[in-house]
Design brief:
alpha/beta, Rossmann fold, two-stranded antiparallel ribbon, about 230 residues, 7 helices, 9 strands, globular
Length: about 230
């Protein structure tokens, strides 16, 4: 059985821990409890694919930046969680994605991880603050570099969590998958797990300049912002 590593990132209030515990332990954690780092092991089987997944839940605090970097550099999937009702968590996700992919490039890793952009708290419709257009722009930028999918979930209502974790067994659809609507079924051809372009392949495609512009897109524009 294939073994993979999945790392979750996100602001401390985005709900990444709630997502993981809702799926693995089948309960919703109502009260917030700060996470330094936790890991879980689970088996995911869907559509003829089966994997053993190590799920890593990282801290949302900046104090643990080095710890987070250690985790994502050998991850097959990285999930960036933000709250659909909090624009600041979305900005934080953008910055984290840029830092992650920049570190992958500098590390000399031969393959990029698959990136999942995950909007949590989809049940808080009236309190939504993150526009679909902004999510799509982010998704499009990432799709220039590596496999990517977008999905909105609700840990509280258990909406789309099975679909999110199914990605880790099936891989993302091609062309890159966009599932911001919880009611929209996944479309496209399913590919094998852990599909990504290698750094060498990107060079052969003449993508060096485009990668640099992509990383610049994520550079923090307001240095004074704290998450």
């Amino acid at each position: 059985m294939t073994s993979i590593k999945v790392t979750f990132f996100g602001s401390s209030t985005a709900g990444k821990t709630a997502i993981i515990k809702r799926y693995i332990k089948h309960y919703f954690q109502e009260n917030y409890e700060p996470t330094i780092e936790d890991s879980y092991n689970t088996q995911i089987s869907v559509e003829g694919f089966s994997v053993h997944a190590k799920i890593v839940d990282t801290s949302g605090e900046d104090d643990f930046q080095l710890l987070r970097e250690r985790e994502f550099l050998d991850s097959d999937y990285v999930v960036f969680v933000f709250s659909l009702s909090d624009e600041m968590t979305f900005r934080h996700a953008q910055e984290n994605i840029g830092n992650c992919l920049s570190s992958v490039i500098k590390s000399g890793r031969t393959k990029y991880p698959t990136v999942i952009i995950c909007g949590n708290k989809a049940d808080l419709i009236e309190r939504r603050r993150v526009e679909e257009e902004d999510i799509t722009k982010l998704y499009t930028k990432i799709g220039m570099i590596c496999p990517c999918a977008v999905i909105n979930v609700s840990a509280k209502e258990n909406t789309n969590l099975d679909k999110l974790f199914d990605y880790f067994a099936t891989g993302v659809s091609q062309p890159f998958s966009n599932e911001t609507d919880p009611k929209t079924p996944r479309s496209g051809r399913i590919v094998k797990p852990v599909v990504s372009l290698s750094v060498q392949e990107m060079h052969e495609l003449g993508e060096t300049k485009r990668r640099s512009r992509f990383i610049a897109f994520f550079s923090p524009r307001k240095r004074g912002i704290k998450y």
